[in-house]
Amino acid sequence: METHDEAKLCFPQINTSCIKHTRPQSESMLIYVLLSFVSLLTVILNLLVIISISHFRHRQMLHTPTNLLLLSLAVSDFLVGLFVMPFQILLIEPCWFLGDLVCVLFYFFAFVTTNASVVNMVLISVDRYVAICDPLRYSTKITQRGVQICVLLCWIYSVFYSFQILSDNLKQPGRYNSCYGQCVINVIVAVDLVLCFILPVSTIVVLYLRVFVVAVSQARAMRSHITAVKLQSSVTVTVKKSELKAARTLGVVVAVFIVSYCPYYLVSLSVSELLIGSSNIFIIFLLLSNSCLNPVIYAYFYTWFRKSVKLVVTLKILQPQSCEARLL
């Protein structure tokens, strides 16, 4: 018969086993339901973006360089919601029953997908910067082929970066566990802070400030400029409004990204090496929640996305020739 102390161990038959943390059942249920809902919502929202861009092709308007970047972002965020978040929910308790190798592979996949999401946001910021600040040469600077290469390089870089940042953990899985049944990895804070937060945020903020200055100057020019061709003036105003909306959207992206990532990196600033595990699960989940908000920010406010969602939800997407539906 097990003693009281043995019953608290993750693996009662092993003396070096981790100790279970007990909490009220109602509290545990609330946490699991909340985090599971965020995970499910992340999958659904990003899947809608993927379907909207991939399935519908009216006039090829949705298959633009910008939407290709949105598709890549949606894929990375979809993988975060489908695989990373559920495994992260398992880490609410310190008892990890899937082994050290699965633990480090999970974190490797988490780093790949979240880093790809961040890089995709930087690429989208660059795309919007060129579209607003140099619209006349946008079609020559930002091409479909060039964006495809950038997306491929984004994912290659994310995989390479994850290998480097987790090299010690991959060589010897479980080396940083303090007890048996724990899932903990070690990350060099300085490298992760610079490459995954400071550089991306700095790039996005600088580009946004430039976009904001140009957008304000264009708005002033619109008010002071008088043209004899009313039709041309109307088209110009429409284009400018579209670009100003893109500028505002980019501003929301910056704010949400910083709010989601700041708590994690503020904690990491206090140490030179950070042990990631069940002790900081909620901070990490806040960071991952950025993948749930991205599709809302980038796609929900577009008319074509709202129309495509209606077609998907009502199952009209299953009808013949549904991919030719007019969304714009």
From TrEMBL:
Query: Any idea where this protein resides?
Result: Cell membrane
Q: Which GO terms describe its cellular component?
A: plasma membrane
Residue intervals passing through the bilayer: 30-56, 68-92, 104-126, 147-167, 187-213, 249-267, 279-301
Q: Which SMART domains match?
A: 7TM_GPCR_Srsx
What keywords are annotated for this sequence in UniProt? Cell membrane, G-protein coupled receptor, Membrane, Receptor, Transducer, Transmembrane, Transmembrane helix
Q: Does the keyword Endoplasmic reticulum apply?
A: no
Query: Any idea which GO molecular function terms this record carries?
Result: trace-amine receptor activity
The record's listing under InterPro entries reads: GPCR_Rhodpsn, GPCR_Rhodpsn_7TM, TAAR
Cite the G-protein coupled receptors family 1 profile domain residue spans from the record.
Answer: 45-298
How the protein sits in the membrane?
Multi-pass membrane protein
Q: Does the keyword Cell membrane apply?
A: yes
Q: Where primarily located?
A: membrane
Family to which this protein belongs: Belongs to the G-protein coupled receptor 1 family.
Known PANTHER family for this protein?
Answer: HISTAMINE RECEPTOR-RELATED G-PROTEIN COUPLED RECEPTOR, TRACE AMINE ASSOCIATED RECEPTOR 19P-RELATED
Q: Which named protein is this?
A: G-protein coupled receptors family 1 profile domain-containing protein
